[in-house]
Sequence to fold (291 residues):
Amino acid sequence: MATDRIDVARLGFGTAPFGYGADGGPQDGATDPEALLRACLDAGIRYVDTSSTYGPAETLLGKARTLHGAGDLRVCVKIPRWAWPEGVTDALRRLRLTGVDTVMFHSAVRDEMLDASMPATMTRARLLARASRTGVSTYGASDAGLALAQPWANSVQVEHSILNPSVVREVAPLKRPGQELIVRSVLCRGLLSTRRPAGAVPADAEGALVALDRLAHRWGFDDLAALAIRFALDTPGVDVVLIGLASLDELAVACGAAAHAPLTRGQLDELATFDRSTSDWTHPERWPVPA
Fold:
């Protein structure tokens, strides 16, 4: 089956896995960022998401010559609160870019978004980044809805997965014309893939994951990760689906999901029964930090 270039173009290369490895380095077995970025571009992906909180991701991307030769590549850089907004300059230096498509305040909360200085600060960040878009990444429907209500928020990034679809379900209808909704954690940081982190899943969650894996194979997907990505692509209101990629094999899974036929209404209804949005184990941001 030929890859659907429209759906592939809605995928985004998430660089967080390059900061998930031991000692803050790249994940074990990670592909060289230059080769991985080139493969993403060859496949049709045109969106890259990164942050200084992802270990060496920005620096590794900055060394990739492909990053600087792709004129239609959209780069989104997220600046953590302790570096906002002056950290934009440092991010551009690490990326070796003079500007990016989107600059975001990373993990913004209500008080920060409602601060009277935020509109002016966003304007400053946009000018520093020479960006077309400004926005925030958030957690939860309340903060995401508040973000979409801000005139300076062209782009809002939220969590979304088969296990936790509640945020997009609540906030997608709130989008204004021209706003985009970016989703991350579609694999629930590995729970919906073969990269499932040891000890992250309580005993009462195994049944749901086993049942989802069986559905994936019954519906013709190579694995559960492909089903999870296809679900995100088929969710109304979603503009870009970020996939944390560390290898060419993971890229192949993402492209395979884009090539797969869209889920039917009946399949989406069946997946709705796996909504575990009220359970902490479906929210990676709530997982205990390893000692």
